[in-house]
Each structure stands twice: as C-alpha cells, then as structure tokens.
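Exam revision sheet. Question 4 asks you to relate a sequence to its structure. Input first:
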Amino acid sequence: MAKKEVIRKKAKPQQDPVVKQKLIWTVGHVMTLTCGLIFTGACLYNVLFFYRHWGWSRLLPFSNHGLVLHHGIGYWVAKTGVPVAYRLALVGVLLSHGVTTWQNWARLNPTYYDLLSKDNFQNLLIATLWLFSRSSFYKLVPFIITSYLHLTKKQNASDEETTKQNSMLLHLIAYSELVVLFSLMWDTLLFRGASGFALVFYTAIYWLKLNFSPYVQTTVLRILSKLKRVVPASQRERWDSVQDFLLRKLREQQVTQEEARKRL
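Answer key, structure tokens:
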C-alpha cells in the first residue's frame, strides 16, 4: 500500500502581548515627544520671526489668527503639517497612557474612584479634551516632559530614584499645568471658541490632581508659601486652611504609597 504523506502546517509562534503593548507604549511616547516638539517649535518660530504681524487685534474677542499667511511651499507645509503634528502628539498620549492604564487595571475591576485618582487616566481625559478644543503649544508641554521622562528612565531605576533625579521636571510639569489653567481663564474672558467648556472640564480634572497628585500638591504648596507674604491679614486664616488641606492630602498619598509597598 502506498503511504500517504500528511502535510501539517507549522504553528505560528504566538507573540507575547506584553511585547506589543511595550511597542505601542514606546511609539506613543515618541509621537508625543517628536510631534509635540515640532508643533512647539513652529509656534515659537511664528512668535519670534513674525511678531510684526501681531497686534492688539489678537486680544480682541472672536479674533482668528493662526500662522502668518504667505505664499509658497512653506505656507502649505505649515498649514497642514503643523496642525497634524498637534493631533498626532495627542494621539501618542492616548496610546501610551492607554496602554499603561490597561496594564494596571486589565485584571482588576476598578471603580470610577480608582480610575479618576490616577495620573494616567487623568491625562487620558485631558488629551481627549484637547483633541476637541483650541490648539496651543502650552497644552502639550506637560505631555512632552512626561514622555521625555518615560523614554529616558533607566530600566532598573525605582520610582523614588526617578522622582528625586527629575524633581525639577516634575515641578515644571505642575507649573505648566497651572499655565494651562490660567490661559483657559483668559481665553474664556475673551470668548475664544469653546474655551468656557474646556475650562470647566479642565478645572474638574485639575481638582482631581490637587487631591491625588503629589507633585501638583507640592508645587502648589510652594506657590502658596511664597505668596503668603502679600496676603492681607484678614485673609490669612483662609490661606492657611488651603495649605492645610493640601498638606493633609499630601500626607494621605504618602501613607497610601507606603501601604502599597508593604503589600508588594
């Protein structure tokens, strides 16, 4: 009898999902860093070299000014490429922070409180908000610094070591987030687009950061302590109550982190 040859297909090697997630995480941070720097550089170039086109009309309500209009390839590149870079930077935030959030909570059943108290989820909400609001380079600054910190972090370095080494950059993130808050207030006063709605949502998210983000709490406490000298005596009690609130929240975060380390 003739022997039948059985042809078997080779099983495809299964790819580790963690490797895919790591790749998406890295690509997201690279997109945020590179595209964010491109958009920021274009905005700074516009400010430095086209200042003569700026006028008091930019401060008026309903004014619509973008990159300076002129003819040529550079104009079309700026008109299309720069806005795309802004959107891609935010898409990178969604990718990188989305992967981190998935890895932290995929096997758990988190509550809304658990999600809203974490920086990653807060940044996801902010990036989503910026996708549907007025583009500005200062909105990307916190994300650019965060991506830089993640991409340059050493593999064996602990979170405490990274925080100590990059404390200045963490404070810079907190200061830039305050700049975003005040700029939204200014845009709201000038009735620019949907800045009022963006201000409401961003204020709510920033309130979460004041409650759960140690670097934000520490930076705001620094600012309050420096401004305390100029606060009238009649308002000192309220000023101290705000500082006490932030100190209490900061201590609660430290206790929570210590308890989490003991469980590991």
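Marking note for examiners. Residues 157-264 form one domain.
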